[in-house]
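Hello forum,

I keep getting stuck at the same step: I have a sequence, I want structure tokens, and every attempt I make locally crashes halfway through. Rather than fight my setup again tonight, could one of you with a working pipeline run this one for me? It's a single chain of 198 residues.
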Amino acid sequence: MDEKTEELRDIFLDVAEDETVTESQSEPRGTLTGDDAPVRERLVDVVERMRDRFDFETDLATETYAEIVRRFYDGQADEQLAVDLDLDRATVFRARADLHLLREDDAADVDLAAIRERVADGADPMAAAATLGYDESAAERARAVLRARDASRRVSQRYRSEFEEILTDADIAVRLTASAQEDGLAEATEDIETDLQF
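Reply #2:
Ran it on my machine without issues. Output:
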């Protein structure tokens, strides 16, 4: 410490009542993306509204349904969802159908158009699938897909759009925060001259 610094320190200590020169930070710093509780709450809200309107086929907790939504949009396959959430694949599929979250290949092994045609003539989807030669498992998947598609169309895919909006908002917040951190660091350091000679 040079003479001038010592002099300033002595003046400060004479004037100040406390000998502490620095104050520790008592409040934790905030974050834009560290807490995903608001996203989870919004997903739960949408699931609850769906549950009030439609008959869900599983008795999973609403929070589990919300987690399935999030992981579905993260690109997880049913096999991984089943492992991570300690469920069987059939339950994961039925839950996705309840949420109107269908994949292109959910009924790839059945002729949905043919089943739908028979259903339009008054046949039960399971019976229609059976008459076309599909086993019970394939018939059940076809029935669930047709049911989910019809329910989703009746509400103009509103709930799926809400899920996508919630998760898109969260993704944008994460990207904007990361960008702000990178830009802020670059801006703060751009005028620093570094002298590496010791």
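The CA atoms of residues 161 and 167 lie 10 Å apart. If your local run keeps crashing, start a new thread with the error log.
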